[in-house]
Design brief:
Radius of gyration: 32 Å
Distance between the termini: 75 Å
Strand order of the largest sheet: 2-3-4-1-5
Structural class: mainly alpha
Length: 911
């Protein structure tokens, strides 16, 4: 059939039904852009979309199978009726499509010559039996580009999204899980392995997961197999130079681009009538050549040279692109002449070499040989960078500048200007010649990168030059300099910029850590990891940060006390974020001993602050207060403004929970003055939120709302996702107290969802309590049960007795309404006992909710059986209360929603 037929047919049929493109898109559940592409012949519909189109274009039922094949290019239109109804059926309502937060990148140029492969892979992934498909082939054959095209074509088939996970920079198979989790937005919750969190998040969502460049992490194949086996609606598309060798895997070999026959070869029968210009390899060459030389045309004089170039490059897209980029210097016949000797030398080399080394090496050898001596050296040296570099980094590492001089590269200031300009010119030249490409960034600092295959070649050349160890050492030195320069800035005015910069260079930092530890440079590795702990903490890389710190600590027992103490302190903070108290206490105990021995009072005070936060999160407010006051004495003596501000903030929260609102307000206001002078905007938001709590407790809701809204604005400006859930929750409470219950519930729900995405247990539990009371107030008991069940689960795991007591009280009131009087009385009594042991006080709003839940139970304890239950519950530990309560609540959530009123269930109340 004619390739244009379906698009033209679709347009005519749509118009006959008097439908706009928007209306057809809405009816068939796809985007308007998809309809436009279908009618413009640039996209084939998926099978699912074609079936929906058949319904809404009023195709008779007996013709729909043929229509689907026609739409997908597998049949012609002859069997379709010439006359069709002119009124389309009323579409069934469709839910709005769910789009992922991270989608595959959009390539800058159209894919050439892969129509058949795209259809093949799409058809395979649409088969119900196929769950894991691996695209294999030599390096540079275009596996990634084909995967992106397939992902775009199947977007409508996966309502929960298509996610692209780049793995080219990952060499440690242990990091694959965390890399996938980062793309999906799944964060650690501290209580279960991250792989299990991934499985829980994926569940039965219809998702396509694209794992790109898997060959260097094949040991992680079992992780992919586990995800596929546990998540029934998940499909995984892998690109790799080698198979994964797991049971669920299906393999699809990506062939080179189709090549035209050479002048002395007969044309294949299937290609009869095609011209040289019709072959995909030649089309790709022409397209890329025109990017560097717009006037380039395929002519009778040059087409055979172009055809032979494509043959000599084995139809590999990357090799063709590298060759075509030289057209502005050399016409095709001259290019062919330069290629011939090198290809003749490498083609037919040892068969035990990887295919990429028999083909791609030829293309890159040729491109490398065209460089000037200085460009060759710069290219080799730039290969030490992983996933990109700045001009400053290029100057420091590849140019051998001092770090001070390298910092002036972009501005062309200071001494040694000629050498700095040579770096600028060299990177620019390599960019023009397609060996380096510029990476789009959100700020003004340009970044550059090498394609992975090109980088591997450069590393081999660097090793041949004898400079590999020298350059890796410079690279590690630069990464250490960057991390140490960033470390104090993460607490200051420019912290948002530094977080973004460290994120961009995270692959380089990993590479430097790996090299330093592998080389036995343990103390330098420990310095680097120690400088990065806050970056890992704020960005949620808890397990990875602990991995590097603990590995460096285990291999470097003789590091200086200051270096080791900082690394231990970093582990303690990351373990605190994961909810791992034993590790927190062990590391703090060792770091405090080292700091005491070294006379480092600031480090000692910092450790006391972490211990105080641990006490706060477990409801031991008196201990938290005492620890912070002890640390404050030290920091005030040192005139350490940053330490004072952070300790005042924590002290204010402890005083708030002890009911000392005026004292809490005073120390929090002092903290804010210091933080504003330091410019620590991230920490300012926490101090403002804590101050707003004291105002809320005093009934000053409008003032509290203004502080929360100010914090929200700062967090959005700085990109601080970590503190955002708490701000949304507290703002939701205040707005609800001001009378807008619907908006308050919406904000609390937003807070809950974000906290779950980030893996923050505490910030998941807190809005769950509030939502429990709000949903109960509007009569949705099952939702309230679910919220309180979640909050008790979270806080029992965190050993937070105060918040667990609030969760137990909410559940007690609900269970009373279900007729579970005996357990309800035990829960209410257990809550009372836990609250007394924490010595914490609820603010009036919390106390009102609490009393509304337990008041009817207190009234009924005169009943002898309930009195016994009350007495028993008061002796319960938090663990006993949670283990007794949660299973029954889960049964009520899962079971029928009928209510058993207390009045009608008196006989059963003593169970």
């Amino acid at each position: 059939m004619n390739a244009l037929a379906f698009g033209a047919w679709l347009k005519r049929r749509r118009r006959s039904l008097d439908l706009t493109q928007d209306e057809l898109a809405d009816r068939s559940g796809c985007s308007v852009e998809t309809v436009r592409k279908l009618e413009a012949e640039t996209l084939r519909p998926s099978k699912a979309l074609a079936e929906r189109l058949a319904e809404y274009l009023a195709i008779p039922a007996e013709q729909r199978d043929h229509f689907v094949r026609f739409a997908r290019g597998q049949a012609d239109a002859e069997q379709l009726p010439s006359s069709l109804p002119t009124v389309a059926p009323t579409p069934l309502p469709l839910p709005p499509p769910v789009r992922p937060t991270v989608t595959p990148p959009t390539p800058p140029t159209p894919l050439i010559g892969r129509e058949q492969q795209t259809r093949d892979v799409c058809d395979l992934l649409q088969q119900p039996y196929l769950r894991l498909l691996t695209l294999t082939g030599v390096g540079g054959v275009g596996k990634t580009r084909l995967a992106l095209q397939v992902a775009a074509a199947l977007a409508d088939d996966f309502p929960a999204g298509v996610y692209f996970v780049p793995l080219a920079a990952i060499h440690d198979a242990n990091l694959v899980v965390s890399t996938i989790a980062q793309v999906l937005g799944v964060r650690e919750n501290g209580a279960q392995p991250l792989a299990d969190s991934l499985v829980g998040w994926l569940g039965d969502k219809q998702i396509l997961l694209v794992l790109d460049n898997f060959e260097q992490v094949l040991d992680a194949a079992s992780v992919v197999a586990h995800l596929v086996s546990q998540c029934p609606s998940l499909k995984v598309l892998v690109t790799s130079r080698a198979r994964l060798h797991v049971q669920a895997e299906h393999q699809y070999r990506v062939p080179p681009l189709a090549l035209p026959p050479l002048a002395d070869e007969p044309q294949p029968i299937l290609d009869y009538g095609l011209e040289v210009a019709d072959y995909p390899a030649v089309q790709l060459f022409v397209q890329r050549a025109r990017r560097v030389k717009p006037e380039f045309r395929l002519t009778e004089a040059n087409q055979q040279a172009v055809a032979e170039i494509c043959h000599r490059l084995d139809g590999l897209p990357l090799a063709i692109e590298l060759a075509a980029a030289r057209v502005h210097l050399l016409p095709p016949p001259a290019l062919l002449q330069r290629l011939t000797p090198r290809l003749a030398l490498l083609t037919g080399g040892p068969r035990d070499l990887p295919a990429r080394q028999q083909t791609m090496r030829a293309a890159i050898d040729w491109s490398y040989d065209l460089l000037e001596a200085g460009e060759k050296q710069l290219y080799r040296r730039l290969a030490v960078f992983v996933e990109g570099f700045t001009l400053e980094a290029a100057a420091a590492v590849a140019g051998g500048f001092t770090l001070e001089a390298a910092a002036a590269v972009a501005g062309e200031e200071g001494t040694d200007q000629d050498r700095r300009l040579s770096i600028l010119e060299g990177v620019s030249s390599l960019t023009d010649k397609s060996l380096v490409h510029q990476v789009e960034t959100l700020d003004e600092e340009p970044r550059f990168s090498l394609l992975e295959t090109v980088r591997e070649y450069g590393l081999e050349r660097l090793a041949e030059s004898g400079e590999l160890d020298l350059l890796r050492g410079r690279h590690a030195d630069y990464c250490l300099h960057l991390a140490q320069a960033a470390s104090p800035e993460l607490w200051r005015t420019q912290q948002a910029i530094w977080f973004v910069r460290l994120e961009a260079d995270h692959p380089n930092l990993r590479e430097a850590l790996h090299w330093l530890i592998e080389r036995g440079e343990g103390e330098e590795g420990l310095k680097l990891a120690g400088a990065l702990w806050r970056f890992w903490y704020i960005r949620g890389y808890f397990a990875e940060g602990r991995h590097w710190l603990e590995l460096a600590l285990s291999q470097q027992q003789t590091a200086s006390a200051a270096v080791r103490a900082l690394a231990l302190y970093g582990v303690a903070n990351l373990a605190f974020a994961q909810g791992d108290p034993p590790v927190v206490h062990r590391c703090l105990e060792e770091s405090m001993a080292l700091w005491k021995a070294a006379g480092d009072q600031e480090g000692l005070a910092a450790s006391l602050h972490v211990l105080a936060n641990m006490a706060l999160n477990q409801g031991d407010y008196l201990k938290a207060r005492d620890l912070e006051e002890e640390g404050l004495v030290i920091d005030r003596a040192l005139n350490n403004s940053s330490g004072i501000a952070r300790k005042l903030q924590c002290l204010g929260l402890a005083l708030y929970r002890l009911g000392e609102y005026a004292a809490a307000r005073a120390v929090l206001e002092e903290s804010l003055v210091l933080l504003r002078s330091l410019g620590d905007r991230v920490t300012i938001t926490y101090a403002q939120n804590f101050l707003a709590l004291t105002l809320r407790a005093e009934g000053r809701y409008a003032e509290a709302r203004a502080l929360h809204e100010s914090s929200l604005a700062i967090q959005e400006a700085t990109g601080d996702q970590f503190g955002l859930p708490g701000t949304l929750h507290n703002l939701g409470i205040v707005i609800a107290m001001l009378g807008d219950l619907e908006e308050g519930e919406r904000l609390c729900t937003d807070s809950l969802h974000l906290a779950q995405k980030l893996g923050k247990k505490r910030d998941t539990g807190l809005p769950s309590i509030t939502l429990g009371y709000l949903t109960q107030r509007r009569g949705d008991r099952r939702a309230a049960l679910s919220h309180f069940h979640r909050s008790l689960t979270m806080f029992a795991e965190l050993d937070d007795r105060f918040e667990s007591a609030r969760s137990l009280a909410g559940l007690a009131g609900l269970l009373w309404s279900y007729g579970e009087r005996d357990l309800s009385a035990r829960q209410a009594s257990a809550a009372e006992g836990l609250l007394e042991r924490t010595r914490g006080r609820m603010e009036p709003r919390e106390r009102a909710d609490y009393e509304s839940s337990v008041a009817p139970i207190r009234t009924a304890v005169s009943d002898r059986q309930l009195a016994d239950a009350w007495a028993t519950g008061r002796t319960w530990t938090l663990t006993e209360a949670a283990q007794t309560t949660l299973p029954l609540v889960q049964k009520l959530i899962d079971g029928p929603s009928q209510t058993r009123s207390p009045e009608s269930e008196t006989a059963g109340s003593a169970r």
